[in-house]
């Protein structure tokens, strides 16, 4: 299911066929450093991650992480979407792109489409985001989207602190 289209990207629901790409993305050193090691080491692990994460989220909430691919070539370059975490009271926007596609505006373009989709399709009046305190690139993306820093928090069950950003419509 296509969720949004931008000038350069198409965002669609992830499927089990995306497992090889998810395996690659989740094992990028930058993903592990800034987001965390999800323990996805095989294509089968990636399928389980998809089933228990994004696919379950589509069923439960109607939204979740989406595959972001280039409109021109069809090449997958990342994931972005809306998440409803048990540990946050608001829906949050999340994104991760392969390093070869950083600094090209794709994260801003994709995440903006997801925020607008959440506001328009789900009538969300507030969206938040969390990021590692030292992830300057993600912080810049959030600021370009209009999210403002609100607090340093620690999510339940996580020893690391994260920065919380938010926007109200």
**H and E string:** EEHHHEEEHEHEE
Q: Looking across the biggest beta sheet, what order are the strands in? A: 1-2-3-4-5
> What distance separates the N and C termini?
26 Å
Share in helix: 25-40%
Instruction: Quote the beta fraction.
Output: 25-35%
> Would you identify the CATH architecture?
3-Layer(aba) Sandwich
The class by helix and strand makeup works out as alpha+beta
Q: Whole-number average pLDDT? A: 97
CATH class: Alpha Beta
- Rough outline: globular
| Count of distinct structural domains | 1
Describe this structure in words.
The protein has one domain: Gcn5-related N-acetyltransferase (GNAT) (Aminopeptidase). 35% of the residues lie in helices and 30% in strands. The chain has helices at 19-26, 29-34, 43-61, 106-122, 136-144; strands at residues 2-5, 9-13, 65-70, 76-83, 92-97, 126-131, 148-154, 161-168. The protein starts with a strand and ends with a strand.
Secondary structure: elements and pairs:
Blueprint: E1 2-5, E2 9-13, H1 19-26, H2 29-34, H3 43-61, E3 65-70, E4 76-83, E5 92-97, H4 106-122, E6 126-131, H5 136-144, E7 148-154, E8 161-168
Antiparallel strand pairs: 1-2, 2-3, 3-4, 4-5, 6-8, 7-8
Helix pairs in contact: 1-3
């Amino acid at each position: 299911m296509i969720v949004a289209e931008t000038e350069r990207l198409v965002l669609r629901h992830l499927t089990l066929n995306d497992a090889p790409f998810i395996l690659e993305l989740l094992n990028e050193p930058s993903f592990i450093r800034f987001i965390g090691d999800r323990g996805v080491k095989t294509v089968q692990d990636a399928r389980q991650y998809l089933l228990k994460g994004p696919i379950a989220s589509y069923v439960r909430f109607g939204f979740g992480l989406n595959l972001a691919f280039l409109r021109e070539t069809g090449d997958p370059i990342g994931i972005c979407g809306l998440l409803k975490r048990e540990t946050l009271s608001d829906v949050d926007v999340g994104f991760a792109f392969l390093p070869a596609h950083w600094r090209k505006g794709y994260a801003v373009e994709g995440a903006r489409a997801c925020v607008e989709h959440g506001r328009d399709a789900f009538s969300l009046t507030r969206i938040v985001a969390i990021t590692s305190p030292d992830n300057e690139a993600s912080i810049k993306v959030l600021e370009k989207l209009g999210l403002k820093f609100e607090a340093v928090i620690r999510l339940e069950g996580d020893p690391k602190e994260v920065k919380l950003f938010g926007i109200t419509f």
